[in-house]
Amino acid sequence: MKKRMLSGIKPTGQLTLGNYIGALRNFVNYQDDYEMIVFIANLHCITEYQDPEDLKKNLTDAVALYLACGLDPNKATIFLQTDVPAHAQLGYIMACNTYLGELNRMTQFKDKSAKGEKNLTAGLYTYPCLMAADILLYDANYVPVGEDQKQHVELTRDIAQRFNNKYGETFVVPEPLIAKVGARIMSLTDPSKKMSKSDETNKGCIYLLDDPKVARKKIMSAVTDSLNDIKLDKENQPGLYNLIEIASALSGRSMEDIVEEFKGQGYGKLKGYVADVVCDTLEKIQGRYKEIIESRQIEKVLEEGAQKASAIANKTLDKAVKKIGLEIKYQ
Ligand code: AMP
Ligand code: TRP
């Protein structure tokens, strides 16, 4: 039997090249060898205020982009988190099996609080509990994610083991799966920060729906260094390293091979190559994205996905609820 793999993306704003390289691209590569379940984590989106109209548009775009990037609904189960209410139900049970000390250690939340952001919500604080439910509902063996999500998957393991010890064998304990290349793509304007949807200037982040001309400009003006020497030195030349990593992830060539080709030439030449590879990827994705939006197949994909997902999730929820000593009788 194929091992099961599950992952989600939270489409607050548009999907980025970081999402593609760190997550989506891998889902596509795994869908033949694993039983793949991918969902749009829309409950996670609302941990911070979203304009309702933007949220709707971003959800549709995210599904269309999943498909445009090569996820095949005949192979993978694709659905919206809100279409399977078991996520929120088990999420609450997970919150009752998570310690405050564990949530206090989550770096993503700590970073946000350290920035002094006001009015952070309880939903944002407990979001790792919902994420644990997302994963455990499906008996997932592996969770392919970018580096930033590793800590949340490790917490999920701890919660699963704790629950199993307390109530008896219930959940499969999952493992995070982090790709060797591209697990953390950095901002083009500040290579000490992750490339992120919340980039204020928009210049550091390439979106999958960016006009390729705009994307090329962003790459050509990416921050590098004044050493003028093409080599792999992540510590002293993080901007350059990031560009080579992007090109490597998208072209399938090794980073060393790319360095070998451009060694001794100016950064402009290398950037031109990175821009070519990125634009080629964007053009292919955007071409398919247009076809998918026009074909109106999204509704059907989501309906079938939700049915398949619910069948698995409801069984696990039922099992967990009964182990605790409760019962959902009349749902
Ligand atoms: P998010 O957009 O935060 O929901 O992230 C969805 C997936 O994309 C997760 O697996 C992240 O780890 C991954 N991801 C997001 N940004 C990056 C990035 N800059 N580099 C690599 N992976 C990323
Ligand atoms: N928290 C993830 C992120 O922000 C998205 C996510 C939600 C997820 N639930 C998940 C990823 C379950 C993997 C598995 O990127």
Can you characterise this structure?
This protein has 331 residues and is mostly helical. The protein folds into two domains: 4-178 and 298-324, HUPs (Rossmann fold, 3-Layer(aba) Sandwich); 185-295, Tyrosyl-Transfer RNA Synthetase. The chain has 14 helices and five strands. The strands form two sheets. Strands 1-2-3 form a three-stranded parallel β-sheet. A two-stranded parallel sheet has the order 4-5. Helix 9 (150-167) links the parallel strand 4 (142-144) and strand 5 (175-177). Helix 3 crosses helix 13 (267-295), helix 4 packs parallel to helix 14 (298-324) and helix 10 (212-220) runs antiparallel to helix 13 (267-295). The two termini are 31 Å apart. The mean pLDDT is 95. Bound molecules: adenosine monophosphate and tryptophan (TRP). Tryptophan (TRP) binds next to strand 1 and helix 8. Adenosine monophosphate (AMP) binds at residues 9-10, 18-19, 21-23, 145-146, 148-149, 183-185, 194-195.
Keywords:
53% helix; binds tryptophan; binds adenosine monophosphate; mainly alpha; Rossmann fold; globular; two-stranded parallel sheet; 331 residues; three-stranded parallel sheet; Tyrosyl-Transfer RNA Synthetase
